[in-house]
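**User:** Everyone, produce a chain:

**Assistant:**
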Amino acid sequence: MDTTRPTAGLAPLLALLTVATGIVEAASLLGCGPVFTGMQTGNVLFLAFGTIGEGGLSVVAPATSLGAFVFGAVLAARVEWRLEAHRLRWLIIAMLTEAVLVAAAAAIAWDLEPVRSAPSGRHLAAIAVLSAAMGLRNVTAMRVAVPGMPTTLVTRAMTGFLSGSLIGRDPSFGTARAAARRALSVASMFAGGVAGAAFVRAGFPLHVPLLTASSLALLAGLAGLRVPRVYTR
């Protein structure tokens, strides 16, 4: 199998996907939750808290998200491995598939208002589809393995950026280019979160931010057609 190092052209695409994550998480956490779809650490904790009945948290939404995420990640791992083995552009296919899944979640949530109590069946269905899409995304981001740009969380990127900065002064955290990627990752997540929260605050139904996130994934997929083939080790 041929292998290549991640190309510089992937960073803008992954930044778009990171913005999409921020929008999706705003829609799910503020509109369907509290529940995450990509950042499953939060769901593990929500499920733990809800299990002992603390904080008034339901176990249904986080359990739904976790289950769908597992399904999406396992399916993606099996399919993407086969696509890569046949030299198909699995990265592009994955981004376009994500766009379709998020659009499907938007269709499920069409004119659906943010939840004010327990999530309805439509809320849970939207959560499930979004979480499956984020499971696909996490597998894709791990296989591309662009340092500092995991697209669904920024803790490591922020830590690496601070450690290698003038404040941290640790040269083992890479070059200025690596620092720029990490900063871009954090800024993209913040921008997506602001945009998603603004949609909810303005009273838009949930399909509006979700269609926006789907459009960003579609744009990333179409732009990726111009990037050379990428195979991971």
